[in-house]
Amino acid sequence: MTCIDHYATGESFDIWRCKKCGFLFTQSFPAENEIGRYYESPDYISHSDTNKGLTNRIYHWVRRFMLARKARLIKRHSGLSRGILLDIGTGTGYFPHYMKKKGWRVSAIEKSPQARAFAKEHFGLDIDPPETLEQKEDKSFDVITLWHVMEHLEHLNETWETLNRILKDRGILVVAVPNPTSFDAKKYKEMWAAYDVPRHLWHFSPAVMQQFGAKHGFILTKFLPMPLDAFYVSMLSEKYKKSALTFLKGMASGTEGLFSSLATKERSSSIIYVFRKK
Fold first, then answer.
1. What molecular function terms (GO) are annotated for this protein (predicted)?
2. Using CA atoms in the order 191, 188, 39, 44, what is the torsion angle rounded to 10 degrees?
3. What's the CA gap between 26 and 202, in Å, rounded?
4. In the structure, what pLDDT confidence band is assigned to residue 22 with cuts at 50, 70 and 90?
5. What is the pTM for the complete model shown?
6. Is residue 4 part of a domain?
C-alpha cells in the first residue's frame, strides 16, 4: 500500500510485504544521510517534547504513566532492582532520567542533537550519539531497551548482532514497536499513523519479531500489549483523515482497540517484547 508522510513533507512512500515471511517494510526509504529532514517538524514529539495540541498533551500524560510501568516490567523480568542499563533511541531523556533516580547505572544513545541537548539541559544527562554503540564492551549490560526505536534503524541486522554481543548472558533485551496486525492498523489501513513513513522503515508483526530475535541468537520469553497506544495512534489517524470530532472518534477507536487487545494480545496497537540470549 501507499502511505503519506503527514508529519513533515506530504510525500508518498510504498510499504511492501515479503511473500515468504510476511515482513512489512517501507520501500525506497531515504538514505541515512538524507532522512534527517523528515524528523525536522516541530511537531515530532520524540525530539521536540512539544506540548502543542490536545493529542500531544495526552502523549505526555501517558508517558508519565508508562515510565513507572516500564520500570516495574524491567524489575520483574530482569530480577534486578538495580543494574546496568542501556537505552537506545532515548529521545529527550525521560526514561533514563527516571531509571537513574531508581538507582540504575544508565547509558543512553540518541541520534538527534536537539533531543540530546534537551536531555542535558533538563536532566543533566550526557547522551551518546549512535556511533558509540559499536564501542560498547562485550557483555556489559544487564538490560538493553529500545522503546519505539527498532523501526527507525537502517542497519537492522548489524544492530541485532551488536545487541547480542553487548548484553550479558543473563540479561534481557526489551523492544517496543508498533504492531501492523493490530485492531487500529487494520481499521485505518494506509492512514494508520503508526506506519509513520518514512521515519518507520520496518513494521514488525509478532511473528516477524520472534523470527528476528531467533535469527540473531535470542529467545522471545514474553510479549506484552501496550493498549494505551491505541488512543494516541487513533487520534492521530483521525487527524490525518481530517475527520470532524477527531478527539471523540479517536477515543472511541482507542476504546475498541483496548478491548480487542485485552481479548487477544496480538491485536494491541504496540507490543513490548522481552528477549533473552539463547
1. methyltransferase activity
2. 120
3. 6
4. very high
5. 0.91
6. no
